[in-house]
Structure formats: C-alpha cells, structure tokens
Amino acid sequence: MTAMITSSPVTGQDPLFDALVAEHSRAMLAYVESVINDHHLAEDIVQETLIRAWRHAGVLDAARGSVRGWLLTVARNLAIDRIRSASARHESVGTDHRPEPLTGQVHPDHADQVVAVQITDELLRHLSAEHRDVIRYTCLNGLTARETALALGIPVGTVKSRRHYALSVLRRKVAA
To answer: Most buried of 24, 46, 62, 165, CB within 10 angstroms?
Structure first.
C-alpha cells in the first residue's frame, strides 16, 4: 500500500497533509474508537483514512462540503467494513466489556448528521450575510432575539425582521 506513495507526508514534505493530520486526526481517532472500542484498530483505520484523503486530495474542497465530514464518513465506513469482516470470520472486534445498547434505543447514523450539515450550509448560502448571521445566532445557536441583537450590535426589531425574512427564503428553497 505504501509503495504507491512517492513522498512521505509524515516527513513534513506535504504541509497541506500535515495540516489535515493536525486538524482532524484526534477527532477521527476518538470517533472511530467509540465505534469499534479498540484503540489500536482505530489508529489503523485513521491512518487508512488519512492515506485515502491524501490520495484523493481533489475531493477535499471546503467549498464542496465539510472536510471533516468526508473524513469521518470514510473512517466510519472503514470501521464498519472491519467489523463486518471480523463478524464473517466469527471474530470479535474491540474489548469484551463493551456496554450493551439499551433495548429499543436507536442510535443516529453519523452520515445523516454530515448530510444535514451540508444541506444546511447549502441553504444558508442563499441568504445575505446579515440574514445568515441572524439565523446562525437564533436558530442554530439558540440565542434569543435580544441576545442576538446584543451580539450583533443591532436593534431587537431588526433581528426579528431579518429572522422572519430569512426563514421565508429558506422555506421557499426547501419547498422548491
């Protein structure tokens, strides 16, 4: 697998890759470890994810979506593949003291969260900067109109008006 790599990003020859590792590797490791409950296997999966990111650097464009979202989706898919292959061989992945999920409890799929963030970002691009700020503060961060007004340095009535018009635009975009 490493035979295809012409220069090692670990040696500092690729500053973009080094930045990618510095910014996202800890979050990926924590996420994958929570999925498979095995630190060493999680490290292997994170390494494989970073190698794939390096090989497919063209798809890692913040304008096309969340880089971290792409990385976590790839890592999750690799972890699931590892779990499934171990299951097919009747092996166990992770430790034996993994807590059992509660009966009837549904765990949300991380991919759904990634898609939701991408859809939200796309919708917010249809708003002006002023309307987008108000929506971020009030709807996404849960601040009141008064708190948003203080944060943005504008009157409360302006916050309410911008929220109203921004939500109208978003409703039309979602309905279309």
So the answer is: 46
